[in-house]
């Protein structure tokens, strides 16, 4: 799933390419993906893009008082081309959920933007709204972790009031915006904190380490993603991981094998030596046999 750094990179890239371009066509190929009906999506046609911005993991195209907003969910992505296809889309017959067509008059370039989603479980969501806050997922977002007013005291207030495991707390979009499964693994590894630690049990030193790790990991990833086209962002994300998706590989800090805990539809990775004082966390698929 694209998270804060990749969505930031994507928005920055799209802003440079689409700002000032006319949105000439909107094709919705998955009715299930479109979550709004008023205003109608075709009302966007003929409008000029005034900018592209990020809200958490949401991408928002500002079309002059009307907004095309999308969330890529677990398996969604954006395919950008300056040679868009003229072929008609067949409803439900491809992995393309929507196609946007643009004309950039500054250099007479025609641009195509396909929103794609792999797999059979479809969660990609599209909204056409008059205000980004009309999107429920945006209206309920927590603070941005890289905003100037999100300091260690703001994080401490969040952590000390929660009985959740810290891994789940970091992933909760209504608590902190933009962090998902991958970067929560990376942040907790950098902070040397167990993913199963109860948030309110963390002391001042742990909270300070968590804040510093959050800033370090996210700023580094945002820097790596900046300026990259959408076709390169996934590889850039994967290349910088230290524990996430590296099960069985050596921890770059201590050399111990990276371990995994699997759940029904996701998994987490951690280093026992760095994060849990050597304790092996029970895999949820087999934990009933370990009691």
TrEMBL record:
Keywords of the record: DNA damage, DNA repair, DNA-binding, Glycosidase, Hydrolase, Lyase, Metal-binding, Multifunctional enzyme, Zinc, Zinc-finger
Catalytic activity: Hydrolysis of DNA containing ring-opened 7-methylguanine residues, releasing 2,6-diamino-4-hydroxy-5-(N-methyl)formamidopyrimidine
Annotated GO biological process: base-excision repair
Statement: the UniProt record of this protein carries the keyword Cell membrane: no
All copies of domain FPG-type, residue ranges: 242-276
SMART domains the record matches: Fapy_DNA_glyco, H2TH
Cofactor(s) recorded in Swiss-Prot or TrEMBL: Zn(2+)
The UniProt record lists the keyword Lyase: yes
Residue stretches making up the Formamidopyrimidine-DNA glycosylase catalytic domain: 2-98
Pfam family, one: zf-FPG_IleRS
UniProt similarity note: Belongs to the FPG family.
Protein name: Fpg/Nei family DNA glycosylase
